[in-house]
Amino acid sequence: MSAAEEERSAAAAEAGGEEERRERGGGLGLVSGLVDKAKGFVVEKVTQIPKPEASLERVAFKSVSRQGIELHSHVDVNNPYSHRIPICEVTYTFKSGGKVIASGTMADPGWIAASGSTKLELPVKVPYDFIVSLMKDLGGDWDIDYVLEVGLTIDLPVIGTFTIPLTTEGEMKLPTFRDLF
């Protein structure tokens, strides 16, 4: 074989190798395309699965103790499933005047009833040292402007654990001495 023929033969072998690599790469592109389509399909189906919904009531005054003032709100949770769902935790942050006044977590508060609604009471304890800072917000109308942020974490089969964020804001009238006695 002459040198020219050997060069042509080597060039043809290289070209064949490139075509073979392209074909293998094209196969990988096909597989990755199918995987992407499958992911898209699963995401679409998961977003169509009904999920529990929740709403948050306004904050109200509950009681006074030696430790501070106790406020409360209710979280209503609707369950679209025919079986009960565990609530992992409820977290809350109570703010007034842009400051965090109280925050906490209720670990393992129970279950959401099957095919129905469950009402959870959310106690918010405000220590006395924060009440002094709240006095600045009171003014002449004896109310507190507030924001209550709640995260309701539940565990759904197949989907896993997820948190429903809830927020309510408003004004809360504080009780007078006449209301307490």
Commentary on this structure:
This protein has 181 residues and is α+β, with helices and mostly antiparallel strands. Helices cover 34% and strands 47% of the residues. The strands form 2 sheets. Strands 1, 2, 3 and 6 form a 4-stranded antiparallel β-sheet that branches. A hairpin with a 3-residue loop joins β7 and β8.
Overview features:
alpha+beta, elongated, 181 residues, 3 helices
* Record field, number of beta strands: 8
- Radius of gyration, whole Å: 31 Å
Q: Largest sheet, described in full? A: 4 strands, antiparallel
- Report the total helices: 3
| Overall mean confidence score, pLDDT | 77
> Helix- and strand-based class?
alpha+beta
CATH domain class name of the domain at 56-179? Mainly Beta
CATH topological fold name of the domain at 56-179 = Immunoglobulin-like
Alpha carbon gap, first and last residue: 114 Å
CATH architecture of the domain at 56-179: Sandwich
The gross shape turns out to be elongated
Short description:
By secondary structure, the protein is α+β, with helices and mostly antiparallel strands.
Spell out the blueprint of helices and strands.
Blueprint: H1 3-48, E1 53-56, E2 60-64, E3 68-78, E4 85-96, E5 99-112, E6 117-127, H2 128-138, E7 143-156, E8 160-173, H3 177-180
Antiparallel strand pairs: 1-3, 2-3, 3-6, 4-5, 4-7, 7-8
